[in-house]
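This week, work through this protein record:
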Amino acid sequence: MKTSSTPAKFPQAEIGREMKGSDAVVECLIREGVDVIFAYPGGASQELHQSLARTDKIRTILPRHEQGGSFAAESYSRVTGKVGVCMATSGPGATNLVSAIADAYMDSIPMVAITGQVFSKYIGKMAFQETDFYGMTLPVVKHSYLVMNVHDLPRIFKEAFVIARSGRPGPVVIDIPKDVQQAKFQPVFPATVEFRNPTLSHVPQATDDQLKQILALIAEAKKPVLYVGGGVVSAEASAELKAFAEKTNIRVATTLMGIGTFPETHPLSMHWFGMHGAAYGNWAVDQSDLLLCFAARFDDRITGNTDKFATSAKIVHIDIDASEHNKNKRVQLAITSDIKYALTRLNELAAKFTPPDNAAWHAQIDTWMKDHPFGYEESKHIVPQEAVKTLYELTKGDAIITTGVGQHQMWAAQFYRFNEPRRYISSLGLGAMGFGYPAALGAKVARPDKQVIDIDGDGSWLMNVQELATAKIEKIAAKAMILNNQHLGMVVQWEDRFYGSVRGNTILGDETNVGSPDNLAGIYPDFVTIAQGFGVKARRVHLKSELREAIQEMLDHDGPYVLDVIVPYTEHVLPMIPAGKTVKDMLLK
């Protein structure tokens, strides 16, 4: 029994030895479990690199461009669920991180971006390579820090990692002037941190009354649908989702961010829906009478015209971020909750739940799925959909797929089946071209035991081609399968559909001799020669008869590999719901 003299047991802060600020930063990273950092050095971050060079507990990977490193760090987080860490120097080094920071913000990915800053006394004086990175990133971060006192470093790093990974995850920026990195002090490493704003780390939980309302709505529904987003991935709640869907016998349609949260080969799966998603998933959502939106945000690429989205449905929205409720779409029941808790408790409350008879609804969906699957027309040439389908068959679905942004991104999601979360890694909210290959590096570092293939387009892949050097020198066996059509394919598709096929700077090759499967002389640039210049094995394939063997060669190679697959530029991603339109405007051919 405790007495008044029994001391309370609280986690105790730890006082470290005297060290420089830069050494304290490294110690903070080690204490947060960081084992890899993607970092490009410069004058304002050199102290930090010197400190990293003195430890063997963190692997420092040198990208060949700060954007490449930050995309890799973000992908490392997407694959592992851990906080990804990247670092750059001040000024242009820091600004090169902005795309990945914005990408992580839009897709709710936990990341800490560390930047060097000019000496404190020069801040605000337009010193060499000075930018107000703190102010510049405020719209696209969960939180930002400019560290002006070296004694604040341990607390700030502890807070930053808690903020990045808790609640709705997101990126945090820590900007550290060079004199703060150089200053010597005796750090006090806190065991825990507290926030004046509880929303930074508070995890809300649904009440039983709210969850019972959901079960009551399901009991009355004739056409229920589960609409599942990336928050289920962040919450590690895929098992709970599967149990709930099976218990209630409800069909599941995911967003692109939610791919793999529910096994795509499961009988209840309708794969993913939205602008280029499955026709059957879009129709099911449109005609549903109960739409259960779990950890998604009613993005415009999902809803189209929100006024005409799921107009017959009662909509339930569970999200950890209350600001998402009724932001894009008005709903009948909004619940602020951690989705893993909500699903766990729903499964407990539904222990004796008997789902209603929705056989007619399931039969209708089965008919749609049979009559309108993802498909393509056969050709004498390799079509991109066929390349993705063949890759799926040869890997048996057991690979991590990263993508750039464009048509190939959609085809990867359409023709590769994902039965686990954190296997489809793509820039989805921001749609950042150049994401694919750096992301493959981060994914392969995270999961060296898995095949990691970047399915990319020639335009998107070329934007960060320099990361082949990183793959070669760091011995990162990330593969790239380029669907090379010599055009900015998705923009060309819009030109064909809505702009009379007028080419507005969308041809990437020589306009007088545009490359094609029938005109290899016009294929430019030569990706095989480029890859070989980096010391990376590469091959071009344009004959359908060689495709399967070429993909197998790529998979069998022990090291990075570039497979340049020549495809026609005339293919369009279908289905397609034009921007701002409705399911009724869906293009099927």
